[in-house]
Design brief:
Layout lengths: L1 H26 L9 E7 L3 E11 L5 E12 L3 E8 L6 E3 L6 E5 L13 E7 L5 E4 L5 E2 L5 E2 L22 E2 L4 E4 L2 E5 L2 E4 L6 E2 L5 E2 L17 E5 L1 E3 L5 H36 L3
Antiparallel strand pairs: 1-4, 2-3, 5-18, 6-17, 7-8, 7-14, 9-10, 11-12, 12-13, 15-16
Helix pairs in contact: 1-2
């Protein structure tokens, strides 16, 4: 009986966590460059049950042979195994702001070990040392003319330097070069991740490496092609209709587990207050 309580509780916890992930995805459906989270639910290792007994052999010595008959597997519940971001390209839309950049994937190699397709990111200077990465190209100029993101993190050039401009009267070419009065002043920093599943997803659409090491530059990487478009942004890759369907499914699964838990509770109530009284 108590095993049933634990099994149902694990199902409710897993569905609650899945609901939180889907809700966060839908809340960021209009966030530029947002990558939707995907969850995987799996069961705990199964227990193989067998009935153990004795078989009497009618002999003079009365031999007993122990035997066991397989009953089947018993599952002990489920859990949310991991949460991974979906790095597929979001839709591109125009903003008419010269400080908005859209990063467009071209051909990306597939990692031989993980089978994951690589992707590229804008390079940002992280305040805690090292670099952070994002697909959100909604940039602006701060009071000193430095190109920053919406959290005030400096956008880095391909050489790892901050990009300073006099005003927003500049041009960004598709290959990442920034021009002022037809003179190249910097190359926008773009980094490449061969296996983006190994990155840590943080708040505000930022990604960082697990070990704190910087990702390699995407320029000159074999098999990597990409382009940039000024005055455009990459939208979120959240599928709102599918997310709503998955949210309702998770809610119904949570509700079903809840009803089973209530049934267990009623059975325990009868066992304690009625059967026990007899």
């Amino acid at each position: 009986m108590f095993k049933g309580f634990y099994t149902v509780a694990t199902g409710m916890i897993a569905q609650q966590r899945k609901t939180e992930i889907l809700t966060n995805n839908m809340a960021n459906a209009n966030t530029p460059g947002f990558k939707a989270d995907q969850s995987t639910i799996r069961s705990f290792p199964d227990l193989l049950l067998s009935a153990i007994g004795d078989t009497n052999i009618p002999t003079e010595k009365g031999l007993n042979i122990r035997n066991h008959d397989p009953i089947g597997a018993l599952n002990t519940g489920v859990y949310l195994q991991e949460t991974l971001a979906n790095y597929t390209q979001g839709s591109i839309y125009e903003t008419s702001l010269t400080t908005d950049f859209a990063l467009i994937n071209g051909t990306m190699p597939i990692d031989q070990e993980s089978g994951q397709t690589g992707t590229v990111f804008f390079r940002l200077e992280h305040p805690e040392d090292g670099e952070a990465y994002t697909r959100n190209g909604n940039f602006t100029l701060d009071g000193r003319g430095y190109l920053v993101n919406s959290q005030g993190l400096y956008v880095l050039s391909n050489t790892g330097q901050r990009i300073q401009l006099q005003d927003d009267n500049f041009q960004l070419s598709q290959d990442g070069n920034i021009y002022v009065n037809n003179q190249q002043v910097a190359t926008l920093g773009i980094s490449f991740s061969a296996n983006p599943d190994e990155l840590l997803k943080q708040d505000n659409g930022l990604f960082r490496t697990v070990d704190g090491e910087n990702l390699p530059t995407a320029y000159g990487q074999e098999g990597v092609t990409f382009a940039m478009q000024q005055s455009y942004l990459e939208g979120s890759n959240v599928d709102s209709a599918q997310s709503m369907t998955d949210l309702l499914t998770a809610y119904r699964a949570f509700e079903a587990n809840q009803k089973v838990l209530q049934a267990y509770d009623k059975s325990m109530d009868k066992a304690v207050n009625e059967i026990g009284r007899v």
